[in-house]
Amino acid sequence: MSKVIDAVSAFMDQLVAKNPGQPEFIQAVHEVAESVMPIVESTPAYRKAKILERIAEPERVIIFRVPWLDDRGDIQVNRGFRIEMNSAIGPYKGGLRFHPTVNLGLLKFLAFEQVFKNSLTTIMMGGGKGGSDFDPKGKSDNEVMRFCQSFMSELFRHIGPDTDVPAGDIGVGLREIGFLFGQYKRLANRFCGVLTGKGLESGGSFIRLEATGYGTTYFAQEMLATRGESIKGKVAVISGSGNVAQYTAEKVTQLGGKVVTLSDSSGTIVDKDGIDEEKLAWVMDLKNVRRGRISEYCDKFKRAEFRPNQRPWDVKCDIAFPSATQNEIGATDARTLVDNGCVCVAEGANMPTEPDGIDVFVAAKILYGPGKAANAGGVAVSGLEMAQNSQFHQWRRDEVDTRLHGIMRSIHDNCVKYGEENGFVNYVRGANIAGFVKVADAMLAQGVV
Ligand code: NDP
User: Fold this and answer.
1) Is residue 448 included in any domain, yes or no?
2) How confident is the model at residue 415 (pLDDT cuts 50, 70, 90)?
3) If you measure from the C-alpha of residue 228 to the centroid of ligand 1, how many angstroms do you get, rounded to a whole number?
4) What's the whole-model pTM score?
5) For atom 13 of ligand 1, which residue has the closest CA?
């Protein structure tokens, strides 16, 4: 055991030295290294081929200037990124994030996570991620369009349906993907599956919009089933009020659960009566059409309460779905959730729980599904969208939903296969090892590239 600990520490020392100022990337790699080092240490071929060292180094990083004109005619300059992390098992695949906090280290963490997540989906996709420090909040549709066109004017030469296929993430939804796709098509003179998350009218897939939230809920359902439980009758807290949060709320409600919170970066709304289908439709219009703030919920639904600058983790619940952003659950939040009786945490967001928080969940032996497994439904349906685009065909809604459900079940089974110890499933270890082995074996087969 101490040999493994020493190996992790030696590996991390050189990673930290090589990647200064990238705390999220270091955090993500450390978690995977801890899980997979026993396998690396006991597999001489992995060690000799320096698989871990290579997997933590992006194959390619593209950084570019994105100049655009705002509505006053003033020039704005943002920075664009695409991290092409690993293509051992398929074309680079992963979302674009538009948010002021975007930087190289943040996107490297997301691209790194994406490699293992994509591997888990059973679809042949490599890992990548990209985005910009552009903030779509408060911008007009025309400003967002001009930004997207400028961003794509550089990105288009690096992507392609068999090379690198971006999708959405924070700040990049249907509207942004539409503008990005329009500009790609104009520049490349090709209608193809170069982006996923497109609108249904532009070659998108049914259920892609819903996929991450639905998939995370299906994953929670699978975890609960291992203890003879289900979502029916359970109280759920959800953070965020964007794409993932909205469709998690929809599926939890459809399965008989009661959702009592949503949030955004200004605070949390608590509705003890439950955010039912009708209230959720109002939220979707608020966030996706009127582009308002979640606090407005309490003006409309008077029995609900707004808690400024607070997260939902101290609201009593059975299940928690962190669905906003990274590092939103610390050790104290995790302890509060466990003490209040929470039995299941399914991560819709990427790396929303800090390492100390994960330790609390694992020590308490609750059902804890890490993002790279629990939220893989989004990229899985993106993979299905690529398959449909290559056939110039659109599958039926129920057909895609059934496939999504099957994929989430298979990801869950794989986590159990690699993560079960003495009757307890450590989903972190299970997801990391299952995701790693497939990519590592492909890298071995392809030589030193
Ligand atoms: P959206 O942009 O649709 O929504 C993001 C939500 O999270 C908003 O409510 C936003 O509030 C809130 N949020 C964002 N940043 C912060 C912050 N720093 N602090 C507090 N709240 C914040 O994004 P998505 O729903 O698509 O993504 C949410 C999470 O899910 C991300 O971690 C993403 O990586 C992950 N994910 C998304 C997938 C997808 O298919 N879209 C797939 C897999 C994972 P505000 O409006 O105030 O910023």
Assistant:
1) no
2) very high
3) 31
4) 0.97
5) 324
